[in-house]
Amino acid sequence: MCHKTKLMLWMLFALVISIMAMMLFTSPVRSERSPTYRCIDNLRILQIAKDAWANDHGKTLKDTPMRQDLKVYLGANGMPKCPSAGTYVLGSVGESPSCSLPGHRLSSHVGL
Ligand SMILES: [Zn+2]
User: Fold this and answer.
1) In this structure, are residues 112 and 46 in contact, taking their beta carbons and an 8 Å threshold?
2) pTM above 0.70?
3) For residue 6, how many other CB atoms are within 10 A of its CB?
4) 58: CA distance to ligand 1 center in Å?
5) What does 59-105 look like in DSSP terms, one character per residue?
6) pLDDT, tens digit (0-9, with 9 covering 90-100), for 12-23
7) Distance in Å, CA 6 to ligand 1 centroid
8) Handedness of CA 13, 32, 78, 107 (dihedral sign)
9) Which end is more exposed in the chain, N or C (fewer Cβ atoms within 10 Å of the end residue's Cβ)?
10) Where are the domains of the chain?
């Protein structure tokens, strides 16, 4: 086997290893993202959007934004939707946004 072929094989080996490592590190994370977890992620996004809206418009904790008020803060994806088809209630700035489905709550998970 000439030197060049050895080098090529080594590079191929390194490529396969890095692809396998990438799969190892990315796929379990994705499969762990259950609908509940994705919903809570959405609620967190809504909370951030509400805070930004309150900050930009001098609102207090008692003020409640309309869905269209948050549009500008939610970017191209627009209003997030519950992956399990729950309904979101934005609530006032002082409240956490909520989903109609049980367990889909910002406060129900420790560390959020
Ligand atoms: Zn939900």
Assistant:
1) no
2) no
3) 10
4) 29
5) --TT----HHHHHHHHGGG-S---TT---EE---TTSPPEESSTT--
6) 999 998 888 877
7) 54
8) negative
9) N
10) 1-32, 35-108
Centre of ligand 1 from the C-alpha of residue 33, in Å: 13
Cα of 76 to ligand 1 centre, how many Å?
20
Dihedral pair phi/psi, residue 97, rounded to 5°: -65, 150
Cα-to-centroid distance, 9 and ligand 1 (Å): 49
Distance CA 44, CA 38 (A): 10
Q: Dump pLDDT digits (tens) for 92-107.
A: 999 999 999 999 998 6
Answer yes or no: is pLDDT of 69 > 70.
Answer: yes
1 burial (CB, 10 Å; 0-12 / 13-18 / 19+) is exposed
Quick check: 27 pLDDT over 80?
no
**21 CA from centroid of ligand 1 (Å):** 32
Measured in whole angstroms, how far is the alpha carbon of residue 18 from the centre of its chain? 26
Of the pLDDT bands very low, low, confident and very high (cuts 50, 70, 90), residue 32 is low
Q: Assess contact for 106 and 97: CB atoms under 8 A.
A: yes
